[in-house]
Amino acid sequence: MNFELFIAKRIIAGKQYKSSISSPIITIATIAIALGVAIMLIAVSITSGFQKKVRDKMTGFKGHIQIVNYDNNNSDVSTVPIDINQEFYPEFKNIEGIKKVQPFANVGGIIRTPTDFEGIIFKGVSADYDFTFFNECLVEGRLPDFSQDRNREILISESIANRLHFKVNDTIQTWFGAENSSLKFKSRKPVIVGIYNTGFEQFDKIMLLGDLREVQKINRWKDNEIGGFEVLIDDYDKLKEKGDEVYTSIGATLNSITIVSNYPAIFEWLKLLDNNVWFIIGIMVLVAGINMVTALLVLILERVQMVGILKALGSVNWSIRKIFLYNASYLILKGLFWGNLIGLSILLIQKYTKLISLDPETYYVSTMPVDINFLAILLLNIGTLALCFLMLIVPSYIITKIRPSKSIRFA
User: Fold this and answer.
1) For residue 122, what pLDDT is reported?
2) Which residues contact 255 (CB under 8 A, 6 or more apart)?
3) Buried residues in 62-78 as b, exposed as e (16+ CB within 10 A)
4) 152 with 144: CB under 8 angstroms?
5) Which helix H or strand E contains 335, and what residues bound it?
6) Tell me, what's the pLDDT at 388?
7) How far lies 290's CA from each of 229, 262, 391, 398, in Å?
């Protein structure tokens, strides 16, 4: 029989324990742990959700890796075409973890209305383009139909539609710079068949999505000439590794660049969020640990007589320390339970109701994103329990200083 655990249970269940002087201190310590765990869960889930959401939006517009001609100079506009007939298209046969390779071409232009105009980038894609991202962000209409010989259908962002008062099925007037034509500008009248809203204002305010063949006609390119390829990978954590593999697998005249290298400022900013999370976790664990140390010391001092009697009956110091450590562990677990309940409740409410909104121009998302990772939650709970328990071992050493003769006489 584990008599230390038995005594700890009797102390916890006893009415005297619940009405003792230490009761409010224990309650405060439990609340501190609960609030600390809830704050840590919220911080980790929101930060992870924010990073994942922004990353997914970036790759939805640009892919994980782009393969382009060196002469494009990292421009959003495709200036020098490359041949679509490449060994790696439609798939990289010698690289694992590549989900899709899809051609694209961009051309810069303006949308003109009787009263206003707007600068845009027309992104042309092919029928095998992965529309999963835009389909999820579609707020009205449908995706373009690529089965037509001449496809004038486009997707336009809700941001542009609201500014220029467009709606689905409107025919709009656009002008594009013609690189290889006697005409300085070329006019096109595409039809809006769908309106999307990604919340990523940096791209939403300029990007139109349509048929790759239209871009080829504007630039007077051949059917086999495109602006580049977007490569989608299965695991984002292997982006750098796959980026290096792609670079070594393409021709010497082509360049590959990852989304992180293309937009370093945004991804460096996302990395900084991890530092904030670790700081919050450290502070919360420290506060919870200090509160538990205080509660443990009060428990020990309140039961000096019991400690003296147990020592007089032959119990060793470590055995008595285990009684109080069991008691403290129960309080930590109680705090963890309520902390998880509070934290997960808040996260689930935000995930399904989207109560908290953000400015997309500043944060790249319109609502506070939430990513509930149960493995991270489990590790967070185990880590909090272990660290708080380790912090309690040292103050429990005070039990070794209690002498039975004095403690029993004092009582």
Assistant:
1) 94
2) 67, 68, 69, 70, 72, 247
3) bbbbbbbbeebeeebbb
4) no
5) helix 317-353
6) 86
7) 55, 45, 8, 16
SS3 136: helix
Q: Which residues of 242-276 are buried (b: 16+ CB within 10 A; e: fewer)?
A: bbebbeebbeeebbbbbbbebeeeebeebeeeeee
- pLDDT at 403 (0 to 100): 73
Taking the C-alpha atoms of residue 402 and residue 308, their distance in angstroms, rounded to an integer, is 7
The answer to whether the beta carbons of residues 137 and 196 sit under 8 Å apart is yes
Question: Tokens 């008691």 label which residue?
Answer: 327
Burial of 405 (0-12, 13-18, 19+ CB in 10 A): exposed
* DSSP state at residue 246: H
CA angle 243, 72, 97 (to 5 degrees): 20
| Tokens, residue 294 | 């205080």
What's the confidence (pLDDT) of residue 178?
A: 64
Cis-peptide into 81, omega within 30 deg: no
Burial of 278 (0-12, 13-18, 19+ CB in 10 A): exposed
Distance CA 51, CA 30 (A): 32
Q: Give residue for tokens 């997707």.
A: 155
pLDDT at 196: 95
Stretches where the chain sits below pLDDT 50 are: 410-411
What is the distance in angstroms between the CA of the first residue and the CA of the last residue of the chain?
Answer: 29
Amino acid identity at 116 = D
Taking Cα atoms as reference points, which of 66, 50, 43, 44 lies closest to residue 267? 50
**Which segments within 126-170 are labelled E, that is strand?**
138-141, 153-157
Positive or negative, the CA dihedral 106, 109, 113, 116 is positive
C-beta neighbour count of 320 within 10 angstroms: 23
